[in-house]
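Q: I'm teaching a short session on how sequence maps to structure, and I want students to see two examples side by side rather than one. Could you give me a first protein with its sequence written out and its structure tokens following it? Keep the formatting plain so it prints cleanly on a handout.
A: Of course. Example one:
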Amino acid sequence: MARNPHSRTLILISALAATMLLTACAAEATPELAPTEIAPTHSPAPTPDPIVDIGAMEGAMGTVETDADGVLRYTAVEGDVGGLVCERFGRAYWQLESNLTSGGFSCNSVIYVGEILTPTNDKNP
């Protein structure tokens, strides 16, 4: 019995379609991965900028002492200006504490002769 040449083509196309269908289904199936534990990473606390005295300048001529803990203490003299004292230590106004006021130094604070200012690493005003 002679086979119809079109039936061979039809069989071949059907086989090819079935193969593609099976391949597509296999590609869509993703193997389930076993859960893995990821160790949490901890970033070290940021190191604050070191407090450095760049030296006396006009408007910040007071003396500086370092206590036993390494904390700098600035003693104000006549003619000192808050912003320049801040500049001398590379600090913002909220990063100076005063021995005369609670809550620290502010941009409106008056500096008195003999007042002791302590530069800090405070982050917020």
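Q: Perfect. Now a second example for contrast.
A: Example two:
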Amino acid sequence: MDTNQILAALQHSPLPERMGNFERTRTPQEPLQVDEGEYLIVEYRHLQHDALFQVVMRGSEAQFITVLNGEVNPLQTVSIEEAGHLLRRDLLMMLEDLDDEL
């Protein structure tokens, strides 16, 4: 899957700059290659703690992860299309759950 396909799949996913105690640091419009065939396509950073919420794309799948104090915690792996649906529907809830862990 290339960046145009990522953008098409996530074009209707609202990614506000700030949500609760998080600020957006990466959007699908600016994917960051993190490994061969892997792209960081969404990232939110906590404003007061060492915590990240990330969506990493591998092939046609997206993995939702949290990074707390450098420790990577996979949440779920879904298709890129499903990732768009989950971000539209559950992004605030996912960020609130991460905030509660802190």
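Q: What should students look for in example two?
A: Point them to this: Strands lie at 18-19, 22-26, 32-35, 38-46, 51-58, 61-68, 71-79. Also worth mentioning: The CA atoms of residues 34 and 40 lie 6 Å apart.
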